Amino acid sequence: MERTLTNTHRDDLGAQPAPSTAPVLYVVLEGERALAGGMRASLRGVKEVRIGRGAARTWSVDATGIATLEVPDPRMSGKHARLVLDDDGGWLLEDLGSTNGSFLHGARVDIAPIDQASVVTLGATGLLMHPFEEVPDNTQPFIDAVTIKSRPRGIGTLVPIVEQQMPRLVRIAMAKLPMLILGESGAGKEVLARTVHDVSARTGPFVAINCGALAPTLVESQLFGYVRGAFSGANRDEPGLVRSSSGGTLFLDEIGELPAAAQATLLRVLQEKEVLPLGATKPIAVDLRVVAATLKPIEHSPSFRPDLYARVAAYVHRLTPLRDRRADLGLLIADLLPRLAPERAAKLRIAPDLVTALVMHTWPLNVRELEHVLSVAVVTSTDDFLRIEHVGDSLKGARKSAPPAPPPVSAPTSAAASRPLTDEDERLRVELSAALQRTQGNVSEVARTMGKTRMQIHRWMKRFGINPESFRP
Q1: Residue 36: per-residue pLDDT
Q2: 173-204 pLDDT, tens per residue?
Q3: Strand pairing partners for 273?
Q4: Residue 364 and residue 358: Cα distance in Å, rounded?
Q5: Which phi and psi angles does 250 have, rounded to 5°?
Q6: Residue 279 belongs to a domain with what CATH number?
Q7: Does an H or E element contain 265, and which?
Q8: Does residue 341 sit in the same domain as residue 309?
Q9: C-alpha span between 383 and 221 (Å, rounded)
């Protein structure tokens, strides 16, 4: 998954160092505990992760680099699967003879390489293994939902590159600077704006306006108010939305849709900190803090005044789309379900195939789409077990949205795998190929006859770029 930095800024707050990459394992969503949220664990210095059922969700790493992840998932075996760092520096997922199997991108596997961000389903638990996650140097090696739940709504995240931006965002919110939020449709711009208002501790109201929905002929009267008799039908004084937000926060959604005349008036309001209602002769002082949002960047838009942009964009925050922060899916579900089904949320469980589909889906409409999918599932389920059929066609393309599960062995891609073969390597390659030919690609039989483990056979096949499927009838 490619990511961009979550925000840029016009003021000098210091450049962020370029993050390095590291393997990271996320528990994204527990189907048996839909409100549990997720967790993140760095795999720096880890050579093996053993995953199985436990009484509670726990993570530990011993002095030898062996990590243990336990999840209270009754569909998971006590010793279910493991992730292993092989000799070439790549990661392998290996099932340990579990009852319900191990799934990579929705396909059951016994052993398979993980060379990209991959969705792993064990029991009813959806995990995301990212071998090359962007991780800033000061990132905590472990964090879970318990810590994140204490943070304001919209601020908590498991994704390191997004998490890095949040302390700065909080400082800006407390400083009461005007802010511009950039983000795709449904990404949560208004939710974040409300959080900025809450963090700022301003005592006035939060007033939200969709500038694109304002009637062009009424926009100035709606924004800036009017006095009685200002025009036909003005039977009383109206403060307008700008004055109504005095002492609080004015949220201007889709500010790029604001007509030119209203832009000029708003600029004066921001400069002078006063508003002149239609029909009035004296301006009225306002204590205004503006948070604006837009779907598309407006900095160089010919229809948006550059002087107004400078006033509303002291700080620019870019919301990361959900497809690039799927690790946060469990956090979002834990936030949404109690709002959608307050009386049932604590009892709701999610079937394994729905867990897989949710984590694999790319969410083109972002958090709003997730909310709609969950709403449909809650309404159509007759019990407290949400199944994939309960979401209708909403996630039909989920299996196409993520890469297919790779074959058990892929062509060599690492530097170690591409270096020239020694005479001993060539002898081993010929012997291994002959054994696979003789057994028609039966890896277990090859391991038995050569006196090696299946893991070692898979390592050799990866080293030599041998695919056992080519030996099978």
Answers
A1: 97
A2: 999 899 999 999 999 999 999 999 999 989 99
A3: none
A4: 13
A5: -100, 115
A6: 3.40.50.300
A7: helix 260-272
A8: no
A9: 50
Query: Which domain CATH number covers 134?
Result: 2.60.200.20
Give the residue, 88 or 206, on which the prediction is more confident. 206
Task: Tell me, yes or no, whether 161 lies in a domain.
Answer: no
Whether residues 357 and 450 share a domain: the answer is: no
CB 49 within 8 A of CB 69: yes
| pLDDT at 7 (0 to 100) | 39
The residue behind tokens 């009383």 is: 236
In this structure, what are the phi and psi dihedrals at residue 340, rounded to the nearest 5 degrees? -85, -35
Q: Tokens 């006063």 — which residue? A: 274
Average pLDDT over residues 449-469: 80
| Residue 184 and residue 305 share a domain | yes
What is residue 229's predicted lDDT score, i.e. its pLDDT?
73
Closest-CA residue to 106 (of 358, 380, 319):
358
Q: Do both 309 and 393 map to the same domain?
A: no
Token pair 């243990």 is found at 68
Return the number of other C-beta atoms located less than 10 Å from residue 296's C-beta: 9
Residue 32 — φ and ψ, nearest 5°? -80, -10
Tokens of 341: 């089904």
Distances (CA, A) of 50 to 71, 84, 107, 121: 11, 9, 20, 14
In a domain? residue 173: no
Full residue range of the structural domain in which residue 56 is found: 19-154
In contact, 106 and 76? CB cutoff 8 Å: no
Same domain, 104 and 212: no
Which tokens hold the place of 49? 């992760």
Closest to 346 measured CA to CA, from 71, 32, 72, 73 = 32
In this prediction, residue 49 carries a pLDDT of 98
How does pLDDT run across 148-163, given as a tens digit for each residue? Answer: 988 888 899 999 999 9
Specify if 348 maps to a domain. Answer: yes
Which has the minimum average pLDDT: 28-32, 80-84, 240-244, 276-280?
276-280
List all residues 6 or more positions away from 63 whose beta carbon is below 8 Å from its beta carbon: none
State both tokens at 452. Answer: 């090696």
Three-state SS at 79: coil
Please report the pLDDT score of residue 1 as a whole number. Answer: 37
